[in-house]
Amino acid sequence: MSIQTVNPNTNKVVKSFEEMTEKTVDAKxxxxxxxxxxxxxTSYQQRADLLHKVATLMRAKKTALAKTITxxxxxxxxxxxxxxxxxxxxxxxxxxNGEVFLADKVLDxxxxxxxxxxxxxxxxxxxxxxxxxxxxxxRFAAPNIMVGNTILLKHASNVPQCAAAIEELFExxxxxKGLYTNLFISGKRASALVSDKRIKGVSLTxxxxxxxxxxxEAGKHLKKVVLELGGNDAFIILEDADMAKIVEWAVxxxxxNNGQSCIASKRFIAVEAIADEFIQKFKDALxxxxxxxxxxxxxxxxxxxxxxxxxxxxxxxNRSVEGGAKVLLGGKRADRKGAFxxxxxxxxxxxxxxxxxxxxxxxxxxxxxxxxxxxxxxxxNDSNFGLGGSIFTQDIERGKRIADQIDSGMLFINxxxxxxxxxxxxxxxxxxxxxxxxxxxxxxxxxxxLIRVS
Length: 454
Ligand code: NDP
Hints:
Layout: E1 3-7, E2 12-17, H1 22-39, H2 44-60, H3 62-73, H4 77-101, E3 105-107, E4 113-120, E5 123-127, H5 135-147, E6 150-154, H6 160-172, E7 180-183, H7 187-193, E8 199-205, H8 208-220, E9 224-228, E10 233-237, H9 243-255, E11 265-271, H10 272-287, H11 307-322, E12 326-329, E13 344-347, H12 354-357, E14 364-370, H13 373-381, E15 385-386, E16 390-392, H14 396-405, E17 412-413, E18 428-429, E19 432-433, H15 438-442, E20 446-453
Parallel strand pairs: 5-6, 5-8, 6-7, 8-9, 10-11, 10-16, 11-14, 13-14, 16-17
Antiparallel strand pairs: 1-2, 3-4, 4-20, 9-19, 12-13, 15-18
Helix pairs in contact: 2-4, 2-5, 3-4, 3-6, 4-5, 7-8, 9-10
The structure holds NADPH dihydro-nicotinamide-adenine-dinucleotide phosphate.
The site of NADPH dihydro-nicotinamide-adenine-dinucleotide phosphate has 26 residues, from helix 7 and helix 8.
């Protein structure tokens, strides 16, 4: 894949970038390693000051950065601004809390004393996707910079201007050279780089294929890896759910980021008693969404990130229909230029139909009617993924009991799966392993060193 900005609203190439040569990459990895030798000796205060500075710069440039996001991957501009705010909050969050999270843990041995000290491990490789081009990077980079590690970042090939802008923010904040480095390389080369002795760990957010590729390399070379892969989150609607709220949340849960979020609500599972009312209202709401240019504040649904992504999604819908699924709404590419897909609802899905198991990364909702609560739980669990999920009921204890029975990393009651700096993020099964954000995220790439005094 070439490294290019292609505006998905028009499918026109805006700007192309050269891939870095092996020699350039080698020099950058060397610089990151040299930077580590100094950075690991800095105080938490120095690290926090840098992260705060980057956050301040990010907020000051919010409009321009958000426009770059929207230009490159088609997110609605207001949502792109929201992403910049969230990313700045994450930088501040780790600057403010990192030292406490990383404080020595004092043990209580039978004699003498012992502590566990959290030490940095070196230069890390991040491989990040285009769907939240600032947030995904920051939630990996901020905690690790606080730990004392240095960052090499291979971003998705369709967001090179976002990738370069993040590096520039660190430069402008006067980060030491080599602390944060953007690498313009292919995914294949990123996987190969994992074997480099100077790289001590790797974190990837993206598809299962890309995740498996870096995990194989990490396994071969015995390196720590964190994977945040896809999801097929259930949105369970029980008979006592508050209808007005569910429909609103169902639209947000499925359509946020033009439907391209790993934690999007993808499988709407309603018990019989409430199913008809819900689906009628959900269909009405989706059919009214205004498609258009994501830079236009009136637009409610923008394009997918690329023509290839839109074609892939349309193919998944077509294969599902061929397999017996019914289209309740939409079902095809929108009749306009750009990488658009109509808001779509699929019904009559069975286990042998594509949309039952595959992740639909775009504005396509799968709708299921089930007999009762237990059938909803069983269906929610019948997935290779286990990222998030939501349960809508006015009986909170019932919601918690159901949450206990669903095999996924994050469960939300009366809200779609969501993210914020202080909530852990990550999944089970094919959705990957490890956690990002919160206190858990900062402990992924540290050496938990025991220091014993006898
Ligand atoms: P990819 O997994 O291909 O891209 C994510 C990142 O991984 C990019 O930086 C990409 O680089 C890189 N990459 C790709 N192949 C490899 C490899 N073999 N080794 C190392 N790195 C690699 O996702 P796509 O953009 O192709 O999207 C495909 C599907 O993946 C989506 O439809 C969705 O289901 C899922 N996905 C999930 C995301 C999430 O948030 N969990 C985010 C994005 C996608 P490059 O761009 O250069 O190929």
